Amino acid sequence: MTDEPADPRSLSVRRVIVELERHVATAGWDAPIRVFALVKTAGALERDPSLANRLPTEVINAATEDLDHLTAVEQEGLPEAQNLEELLHQIAWPDSVDGAAVVVERTVLPPEAESQIPDDEAAAIEWIDRHPDRRDVRLGAAVLRSGEYCCAVRARDHDSDDSVAVGRDLAPGLVEGVAATLD
Questions:
Q1: Residue 175 and which of 16, 20, 113, 139 are 20 to 30 A apart at CA?
Q2: Strand ranges, E, within the chain
Q3: Matching InterPro entries, A to Z (predicted)?
C-alpha cells in the first residue's frame, strides 16, 4: 500500500518517516511514544555551520543536493501526559522547526469489534488484550508546516522493513494531531 509523491517536499517527508519508523523499530516493540522535530538540513546548516562537524557526510551531501532534505531531531524530556492526545496538546514548535513527526504503538481491532468493547475502561483494556483479531501496530506520521505529510505503519505480526505500509492517509488522526502542534 504505497502512493508515490511527486514533489520534492513530499519525497523528503516520505523519506524521513520511513527512516524514523525503521529507527524506532530497532528498539523493538512496547516502546514509548517518540517525538521528533523536523528541520530542513540546509537551513539548519546555514543557521549553525558547526552542525557540519556533527552530521554524517552523507547527510551533508544530501542537503547540498536537495534543499528539502529533512533532519529529524528526537525530543527528550517530553512533558508528562496520560495519553498521546494530551502530550500533543502540550507541544508547540518554534518557527525554526519545519515540521514534526510522531511514532507510536497502538492496538487495532476490526471495525465490527468496536461496538462490543465494554464501557468500563479496565474491562475494555482486558477485552481488547484478549480479542483474537487484535493487531499491534506502530504508526508514524510526519507533517510539514507547508502541508505535506506522510505516514508509515508496521504490524507486529509482519515485523520487517519490507512489510511497512507507507502513504498519506494511513493514520489521519495522527496526522491531524501532529499538524496541530505546528499551529
A1: 113
A2: 34-40, 70-74, 99-108, 135-144, 149-155, 165-167
A3: PPA1309-like
Whether this model's pTM surpasses 0.70:
yes
pLDDT in tens, the chain (183 residues): 445 556 889 999 999 999 999 999 999 999 999 999 999 999 999 999 999 999 999 998 888 888 899 999 999 999 999 899 999 999 999 999 999 999 999 988 888 888 888 888 888 888 888 888 888 999 999 999 999 999 999 999 999 999 999 999 899 999 999 999 998
Length of the chain counted residue by residue: 183
Q: What is the DSSP string of 9-62?
A: HHHHHHHHHHHHHHHHHTT-SSPPPEEEEEEEHHHHHHH-GGGGGTS-HHHHHH
Nearest to 141 by CA among 110, 109, 165: 165
